[in-house]
Amino acid sequence: MKYLIASALLLANLYAATAQTKQVLLQNVRLLDHQAADFTAPMHVLISGSTIEKISSSPIAIQDQDVVKIDGKGKTLMPGLIDVHVHLVFGALTLPQMVTSDMSEEFLVQRVGKSAGDMLLRGFTSVRDAGGPIFPLKAAIDKGQLVGPRVWPSGATISQTAGHGDFRTPDERSRKFFGVVSRAERYGATFIADGRPEVLTAVRENLRFGASQIKLMAGGGTSSAYDPIDVTQYTFDEMKAAIEAAEDWGTYVMVHAYTPRAVQRAVEAGVKSIEHGQMLDEETLQLLADKGIWLSLQNLMDNNDNMDAQRKAKRKPVLEGQEKVWPLAKKLGVKLAWGTDFLFEPELNDDQNSYILRLQKWFTNAEILKMITQDNAELLQLSGLRSPYPGKLGVIEEQALADLLLVNGNPLKDLSLLANPEKNFLLIMKDGQIFKNTVGKK
After folding, report:
1. CATH for 2-80+392-437, options being 2.40.30.10, 2.30.30.100, 2.30.40.10, 3.40.50.970
2. What digits encode the pLDDT tens for the residues 130-145?
3. Which of 13, 39, 77, 189 gives the lowest tally of CB atoms within 10 Å of its CB?
4. Which sign, positive or negative, has the C-alpha torsion 97, 100, 103, 104?
5. In this structure, what are the phi and psi dihedrals at residue 157, rounded to the nearest 5 degrees?
6. Residue spans per domain, the chain
7. pLDDT per position as a tens digit, 71-102
8. CB-neighbour burial class of residue 64 (10 A; exposed 0-12, middle 13-18, buried 19+)
């Protein structure tokens, strides 16, 4: 297939060792300790296969002459970065490309594959894809045909008619009344599902293809054409149907929602993760804290001149709300996760790391580093047995998965180091495989 040729070229252009089977010994590295909010004294870390086999303050003796030894010279070793709200497909393409392109498997792998590889080289070793035709891309990454982060896929978003995931163009009518499946549904971007039976089918279809969690649209959005930002979507019974179907498979439902009404209904139905929520009030945030529900938040950039007037108007209350929600959620003890949620603006992907720095308004550097590694990893593990990658992430400890970054500097003191991964990430490792190594190079 053509995409295999493109994949081979991509792999050749990246500093990757996808066939690496040797042990790796990292010597003289200082480990990020979340509990102490500090770095350890110089340590030695042995990686065997995909996991961290041994951590020692004393040199580790290795008999195997083929072991890859890397002297970290006191540099910082931290877990790989995790973004729990990405759209690998939607974020790599513009809206005109989405509308006009042939969204074949070959197209997705070729066009989006480069973007996935770039994301890994920015230090993001794991992501949760919050909706879209992700399965071919994930399969290519997992098989080593493409370079990219670990992907927790949601599959097609699930939306009611006139909901946030109703991507039909004005000339596309309802398949229920006219018998024609919309283009977005045909390409696996979304399922438009109304009523309990259709919702059950949509959830089970995603699970059939390998979804690790389910993405449901529970309220209006800023990038959709038909639904005002204030509307509540899906009845309680419809939402409950999705949650029951997901729980039968040992996983959970994440919902797109901004308003107190939408979020309170979702929580009552049994949702485990709220995506966005920038318009929430104190009562609803306290509900999330009391019930241990995750709030997966973003810190969006202000409107730009290229946005149409309708989207600017929809985003206004969201942008205003995020300045209040982040500090209030922290104060109330809500379980917070972080993601970027870039859509249809591929140029934003290069800013993914710098968006981490926007959290400094409300959090210490230690709190931010914990959120974008250990806390986000904890959210990923809600997938349980549906998680595509068994093992512990977000920490550096024995038997944890070897997703690691060697940083030239101390991000606890200078978080801006993360915003320049090309310069400051000397080593990038995912699953025990080295994808970048510039240690000791000028």
Report:
1. 2.30.40.10
2. 999 999 999 999 999 9
3. 13
4. negative
5. -65, 155
6. 2-80+392-437
7. 999 999 999 999 999 999 999 987 777 776 67
8. exposed
